Amino acid sequence: MRRLPALTAPLALHLLASLAATPAAARQMDHGAHAMHDMGAGWRMPPMDPNMPMIPGLESALPPVGAFLAAAGIDLATLPEAEPSRVVRMEHGDTLAVDVAIVRRTLNGRTVAMYGYNRQYPGPFIQAPQGATVVVRVTNRIESATTVHWHGLRLDNRFDGVPGLTQDPIAPGESFTYELRVPDAGMFWYHPHVREDVQQDLGLYGNLLVSSPDPNHYGPAHREELLVLDDILMDDQGLVPWGDEAPTHALMGRFGNVMLVNGATGHSLDAAPGEVIRFFITNVANTRTFNVTFGPARVKLVASDVGLFERETWVRSVVVAPAERYVVDVSFPEAGQVAVANTIQAVNHFRGEFYPHVDTLALVNVSGPTVRDAVTEAHATLRRNEAVAAETAPLRAHAARPPDYTLEATVRVQGLPLPIVRSMEADSLYVPPIEWNDAMPMMNWLSTGAQVKWILRDAETGRENEDIHWTFRRGDLVKIRVFNSPDSFHPMNHPVHVHGQRFVVLARDDVPNDNIVWKDTAIVPVGSTMDILVEMSNPGDWMLHCHIAEHLHAGMMMHFAVEG
Prior knowledge:
six-stranded mixed beta sheet, globular, 564 residues, 3 domains, 37 strands, Immunoglobulin-like, mainly beta
C-alpha cells in the first residue's frame, strides 16, 4: 500500500439510483466469501449485503487508484493506545497544544491503526466562553499533511484551516498556531480539511462548546451528554482501505457498517425516570445522514448549529446530516432500557423495495427513584426565544424576493466500468430524496474521484465549482437558492456548508420556514430547492461546499470573498 499524498482536494456531493432486474446466477453468488478475498494491490472488496446481487462483469474489478491504510507496514504493538476524550476548559488567552498522532485502536474485535488529536477519541472536548479568543498549537505527527478547520466558527479568515486558500498545509513534523475567536454561543467541531474522507474517518474530529454568559441559555436540564455520531467501514480483517490518489465511494460517499458514538462502539449511559438530559448531537460521518430516535422518551428540540430555535418543539426524531449539530432535551418516562437509534426506511435498489432498518447507537439504562422537580416541570413547557425571534424577524422579508444567486447541484462521470453505467441507465431507477443507506456498495466503491465530478453550477454564468468567484461587502444579506437537480447520472442529497458566516434557511421548495435558527450547514434533498440567507459579517476568502467528504474531493466546492 502506498502513502496517502498530502494533497488539497475540492468538494463534492453524492446521489442514488435503483436497479431493476438482475440475472439469477448473479444473485446466487457467495458475496461473503468474495468480500473476504484479498483482491491484490492492497484492495479488499467491502462487505456486501447477501440480498444484494453482484453485477455481472464486476466480480474482480478494482478501484483505479492505490489502496491506503494508516501506518502500513508498522507493527501495531509499537503504536500508542488511544484514550477517551478529555474535557479541556479554556479561558480568554489560554493555549492548548494538540498533536495529530497515529494511534492503536480496537474496534469491532480488530486492532487497527487510526489517528487521534492528542491520542484521544474524539479529540479533546474544548470548552470556552463566548467572546473569548483561545490559542491552539497543532503539530502534525502523521504520514501526510493536514490542517484543522474550526467548523461553524466565525473566526479570523487566516485560521479557517483551508489549504491553498487560508494557509499552507501542515507538513509532517511541522506546526501551526490557530487563534480562535469565538463570537457565538453553541456547539462547534473541528476536523481536517486535507483529505478528510480519510483523516476524519480515521478519527480526527472533536467538539468545541462555546458557552453563553446567560446560564439559562438552553433552559434547565439535570445534566448534559455528548453524542458524536459516526460510522466506519470494516470487514473481518479490519478497516477497509481508502483510496490513495483519490477517494473511492465517490458516488454516494463512504458509508460505514460499524456505528460509533463518541468514537467507540457499545456506548451506554444511566438515567433516572423523569430526569432531563440535554444531548449535544454532532454528525461527523463521511456521508451518512442519521435519523435519531429515543424510544418512548419525550424529545424537545432546542437548538442547532449556531444558535437557538425561535421556539422549542416536540419531535419524534432528529434528522442530522453530516456536519450538522442539534441540541435536544430528553426525558425518559419510566424504568427500563431505551435504545438511542438510527431508525430509517432503507432501500434495496436491486429488489426495488423498502425495508425498515434500525441501528442501535447507544443504550440508556433507566432506573432508580423518579425525578420530579422544577427542571422536570420546565421540560414540559415549550419556550419561545424572544431574542432570537426579534433578531430573525426582519430576515423573513427576504423570503419573497428573488434569489441573488442560484446554484445547481449535479454530477458528471467518465471512465466508469461499463456494467455500472448500464445499471445506472436502467429503465426503472428510483431516486430517494435522502440516501439513508448504501444500496449499491460495489458500484459505489468502484467509483472514484478520478471518474466522478460533483458540481455546483452558477445558473446565471454557467461557471462551475472553483471557477465561481463571488464578491460581497461586509453587512450584505445574500439570498442563495440551491437546486438539487434530479436529472443526472446519480442524484443525491447534499449537506451544504458555508465557511466563516452564518445563515438561515428561509424556505424549502417555496414553503417558508416557520421556525428559524442560525445555521452553518443544511441539507438539500434530491429534487428540492433550499433558499438560504447568508449574513456576510466576516471578511476574508471563504468556501461553500458539500460536506459529504467524498463529494468534496470530487470537485463540489466554490469560493467567495467578503470585503470590508
